[in-house]
Design goal:
Blueprint: E1 3-8, E2 26-27, E3 30-31, H1 32-42, E4 48-53, H2 58-64, E5 72-76, H3 81-92, E6 97-100, H4 110-121, E7 126-132, E8 137-140, E9 146-150, E10 156-158, E11 162-165, H5 166-175, H6 183-189, E12 195-198, H7 209-222
Parallel strand pairs: 1-4, 1-6, 4-5, 7-12
Antiparallel strand pairs: 2-3, 6-11, 7-10, 7-11, 8-9
The structure holds cytidine-5'-monophosphate (C5P).
Length: about 220
Amino acid sequence: TDVVALVPAAGSGVRLGENMPKAFVELAGRTLLEWALDGLSASGALSRVVVVVPDILQDTTSRLVESCVLPVDVVVGGAERTDSVRAGLAVAGTADIVLVHDAARCLTPPSLITRVVEAVGAGASAVVPVLPVVDTMKSVDAHGVVTGTVDRATLRSVQTPQGFDGVTLRRAYDAFPETATDDAGLVERLGVDVHTVVGDAEAFKITTPMDLVLARALVARRTQ
Ligand code: C5P
């Protein structure tokens, strides 16, 4: 089976405030992208990787990925995450299984990556890792006034890697030109069931400066 991971790494990282595209921010001397590639390689579940980056960083990335044990293609992304994934999908070819994994979830344990690939291999067309929601969830109106309390027992927070059989993901991206905050969102619109596997706290997405504090602490613990 040809198992390809698309790694969208073309985001600007404005919310992180580090003045550089997020995937190229460093953690213990290595970029988030390199940490993410380490996790994907260590899973032993992949055939190859397609990394999607900003155009000005394509050459830099090609050098960075030279040490990766997996074959890596580097392609240029777009304005929205969906555009970046679409660009990656175009070079992923006829892969049997496609994972889409945020570079920003760079400390994702290899065991989670394997769990997602195995669930797709066992017959699920789409699989997302999820965790229970810990906070109470409320809806609000345009003035910030609460309009309701959502039953959090029915909610999950969704991580990556999201896994798909290649045919289904390509069909979703062909069918819908619009953007979505995750790839499973497009597959849902096809009416295909999206299955869940248990996520992992360490697969959190580095988004804000506080996330970087947590990531540094985790890396320090791992390299002890
Ligand atoms: O912005 P957000 O944290 O949701 O981004 C999630 C992932 O998608 C990051 O790894 C980011 O680099 C990537 N991304 C991308 N192209 C964009 C926006 C985000 O590849 N236009």
